[in-house]
Write a structure and sequence with these properties.
The protein is mainly α. The protein folds into 2 domains: about 5-90, no CATH class; about 100-245, no CATH class. The chain contains 12 helices and 4 strands. It has helices at about 30-35, 35-40, 50, 65-80, 100-105, 110-120, 125-130, 150-155, 160-170, 180-190, 200-220, 230-245, and strands at about 5-10, 55, 55-60, 90. The protein has a two-stranded antiparallel sheet. Strands 2-3 form a two-stranded antiparallel sheet. It is globular.
Length: about 250
C-alpha cells in the first residue's frame, strides 16, 4: 500500500529501481510488462535505472515484440541519465487525476500515451502557446487559417478533426458524437458497451490525437496535405495492429 503512494524523482538513476519504482509516467515498468519483463528485456530485477542506461544509450536487447519496440522507443525519446543530476528522490504521490486512467493504462502505446498526456495538459507547442511565450509567430491555425490554433481547436473543434473522430466512431459502430471539451472526450472513453469497451475507446482516442498532431506537423513543416479519409485509414490500421499484438 505504501509503495503505491510513492513516486521517484529521477536524478542520476543510481537509487531508483528500473522495474519497481515509479520513476517515469508509465508507473513501475514491471506492471506494464508483467513479471517476465526482466527476462524478456535482459535487465535483472535488481538493477537500478543507471545500471540500465549509460548517457542516452539504454542497455536493452534487440526488440522481438511490439511491446518491446514501444518501450525502446519511449525510453530513447524521453529519457537520458546524467551522473551529475543529483540523487534520486522519493516523495508522496499527489492525488490521482481523473484523467490518468485515460492516458496511463496497461496496453497503451507509449508514443500515443505521451502525446495524449501533453495534449490533455495543453502543453504541446501550438501557435497560441508559442505566441504567449513571446515568439513571433502567427496565431492562426496552420491548417485552416480561420481560427486561433489552440489545443481545443486543433484536436476537437476543427472540421477536419471532427471528420476523423466521426469516421473512427462509425468504424466502431457507434453513433458519432462531437467533442467540444476535453472532459466530454474523457467521459466518452469511460462508456461501457459490447462493441466498444473502454480499452478500445482509449486506444482509439490516443491514436486520433497522436495522428492529428503528426498531421499538423507534416503540414506545417513539409507542406504536405492529407485528406480525413487518409488520416482515418492510418489510424484504423494502427489500432488494428495494436489489438492483434495483444490478443491474449
Amino acid at each position: 500500500m505504501a509503495h503505491s503512494l510513492i513516486k521517484c524523482d529521477l536524478g542520476n538513476g543510481e537509487r531508483a529501481s528500473f522495474w519497481y519504482d515509479a520513476w517515469c509516467h508509465l508507473g513501475p515498468l514491471i506492471n506494464l510488462t508483467g513479471n517476465d519483463g526482466p527476462v524478456r528485456f535482459g535487465i535483472s530485477s535488481q538493477l537500478s535505472v543507471a545500471d540500465a542506461c549509460e548517457g542516452n544509450i539504454w542497455h536493452l536487447p534487440s526488440p522481438r515484440s511490439d511491446q518491446e519496440r514501444e518501450l525502446h522507443s519511449f525510453l530513447d525519446m524521453f529519457f537520458s541519465i546524467r551522473p551529475d543530476a543529483g540523487i534520486d528522490c522519493y516523495k508522496e504521490r499527489s492525488n490521482i487525476k481523473e484523467w490518468s486512467s485515460l492516458i496511463w493504462f496497461k496496453g497503451a502505446t507509449p508514443k500515443h500515451a505521451f502525446i495524449m498526456w501533453v495534449a490533455y495538459l495543453h502543453r504541446l507547442p501550438t501557435r497560441d502557446r508559442l505566441h504567449a511565450w513571446g515568439i513571433s509567430t502567427p496565431t492562426s491555425c496552420c491548417i485552416c487559417s480561420a481560427s486561433e490554433e489552440s489545443h481545443v481547436h486543433l484536436f476537437l473543434r476543427y472540421p477536419f478533426s471532427k471528420q476523423v473522430w466521426s469516421r473512427v466512431q462509425s468504424h466502431l459502430r457507434l453513433r458519432p458524437l462531437a467533442f467540444h471539451t476535453w472532459p466530454s472526450l474523457l467521459a466518452w472513453t469511460k462508456i461501457k458497451s459490447d462493441l466498444a469497451p473502454p480499452i478500445i475507446r482509449k486506444l482509439a482516442c490516443q491514436a486520433v490525437v497522436y495522428h492529428l498532431w503528426k498531421l499538423r506537423n507534416t503540414i506545417l513543416h513539409n507542406q504536405v496535405l492529407f485528406s480525413p479519409t487518409a488520416a482515418y485509414q492510418e489510424i484504423v490500421t494502427e489500432i488494428r495492429n495494436t489489438i492483434d499484438a495483444r490478443k491474449s
